[in-house]
């Protein structure tokens, strides 16, 4: 009985830090469950789980494995991820080799670079599930625009083939994005086989940044009326700013800190104004027209300790469509009180025989939020 009680106590002591580690790791993911829904056979069905480092230490996504061959996982970001930067765990639904309803558990291993703990790791389990239809096929499996310069337009075509009942038809194609236009043409209908040509157009005025959308193909199939198709690409901005995350770190109340931004364009431009709703930030830039500008950002910590997050928008003479933006982060800390003076003998004496403090395992991460 005594031995059993000791074993239970040991298990509690060992497993408690692990459970805590999994919780801090889980909090970095935007979600841990994704439903692919009902998708066409051959479609490029991919989901990227976003990971945001909310801690002061650097973190790294070590590996990911799947419980089912229906889903192939991978780590998109293998480098160390700094505070507020993002990484991605990619889950690809294998629609070319599987049909029917499938699900998988993805196990992600995470490592922390901490000066306090030699090895600190966490683990998160993600879940994906969906239904791969065998009667609808896309060729190619997704709409891939690749990289498109801001202000340009690009078209891509997809063939949608259905095999089944002769009365099946596509009634509509819907998109939540104002950056896309769609045209649909029925090409063939015979013997239970229906073929459509789908044209997707990325508009000239598409917003710069990643294009990650879904088109919903609405059919007259009452059991599975919607079939999604992925749309991916990137609109390369005419004007960009670096770094995208301007981290000031810790600043004591009443103190100040300075950082620099680099704003680049493909052709010469002028900075006409810099917008930030927080008065703690001040900006200095030149008025010349050139391809590369350096903006000095001064941060003055106020009297209220806490975390700060401030969007910054840089307006140029090219108009609102060609503005550049980034986000500034800072932690305002309460000013340290001056230590009281003590006799040298007392200080020296108090250090004799002192034992070093042990940092608990679960304090290896200091959250910035």
UniProtKB/TrEMBL annotation:
Keywords: Signal. Gene3D superfamilies: Immunoglobulins. It comes from the Bacteria. InterPro entries: DUF1573 (IPR011467), Ig-like_fold (IPR013783). Residues 334-369 are annotated as: Disordered. Residues 1-21 form the signal peptide. Residues 349-369 have a biased composition (Polar residues). Pfam families: DUF1573. PANTHER family: LIPOPROTEIN-RELATED, SIGNAL PEPTIDE PROTEIN. This is DUF1573 domain-containing protein.
